[in-house]
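Hi everyone,

Forwarding the result from last night's run.
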Amino acid sequence: MAYQSPPNGFRTFLIVWATQSVSVFGSALTFFATTIWLTQTLYPRPEQKPELAFALSAVSLAFALPTVFGAPLAGAWADRHDRKRTMTAMDFASGCLSLIIAGMMATQTLQLGSLVALVFIHACFSAFHNSAFDTSYAMLVPEKQLPRANGMMQTIWSLSGILSPALAASIIALPALARQGVIGGALGAGLATLADGAPLAITLDAITFYFAATVLIFLFIPSPQRTDLRAADGSKKSLWADIREGALYIWHRRPLLWLLGTFTVANLLSSPLGVFLPLIVKFNLGEDWLARGLAFESALALITISGSVGGVMGGVLISAWGGLKARRVYGVVGGMILSGVAMLALGLSPFLFLTAGLAFASHSMLPIMNAHSQAIWQTQTPRELQGRVFAVRRLIAQFTWPLSTALAGWLGGVFNPGHVVAVFGSILTVFCIAQLFNPILLRVEDKAWLDTLAAQKTRG
């Protein structure tokens, strides 16, 4: 019998989406505030540039490694335990961790080593939370509305990139404003005692975590009931057996493997754009933004915000449209092709505003392709298996994140960064066009055929 979502499932999803979105904004505040703290407080002097570069890389890797390589374990956990309880516990734990970071910053006892350790732990909490959250959609939302739900989440990630930096900067400036007398009274006196405002932004992040956890307590979010936790000999299956089961589910279904491989290639080629973009602005677009009387920071902000706005617009479009109801694979591959073309043009562009427009175009495709991909995986994977399968999927798709970041650092220093991005965009475009003629990938939504392939593999 086909699974039926709860009668008010989409309304529940809207509440979860809204409250968890507040937490996403809070996390973006912490990311920005931590970067400012490292730059302006821990390593403020020009001669500390090597230490600052190392610190930024260390913090980034501390978050990336658990996010990518902890995903299979987190996914197996999500399939074994109540997903609402997992999300609630991880939100609460993350809130406590944010308070610890804020407190150590405020008392000037936080150092790089302790920050890296705390970020690592926070990334572990996020991995478990995200695995439970990602697999809860299909339990709440009717299948035909999954692309819309996925698009709504994509919108929030992009919107946080527009609003959170400005909000964080305003909060961080409060102690300085208080010392200047702009903020008076008891509030101003209290703010003036802080060396900087980064702890305030991170404290606000903690509040958003507690808010999200509290709301979850009052919601009904079903979890699938598993009947396969015992092996044939009666022993309890291990988490590692669950991880292996998730990997084999993908391995035995070649169309899903091709879809995953396509994203792996796309992530390898597009992830370094965040590293290349400042280099492009500085070295490829310098003549143009100088002629316009702009500073480097303004030029970089223009392109960054333009990309985030593009992501928001793409998310709004897929949310309102709902995406393709059939042949969703074309929504994935078509979006990748357009994104690759935009990358190619961006790398060759000598003009600031043209580059900003191309960043908008490239980022607007991300929610569209991701929402269609998520809908495919949600409809092709049994709900009781989604935690395990999605975790392995995330590991394979994102393991190129650290690799591409390191590769970008080398290529950007040796070659013209714009030309490297143009080459990457060309490769992505050609690769994705080829996938339009891949008969195996194009049958990725034929569930009966996928299950037949898996049965043949199992018997073999």
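The chain has a mean pLDDT of 82.

Cheers,
N.
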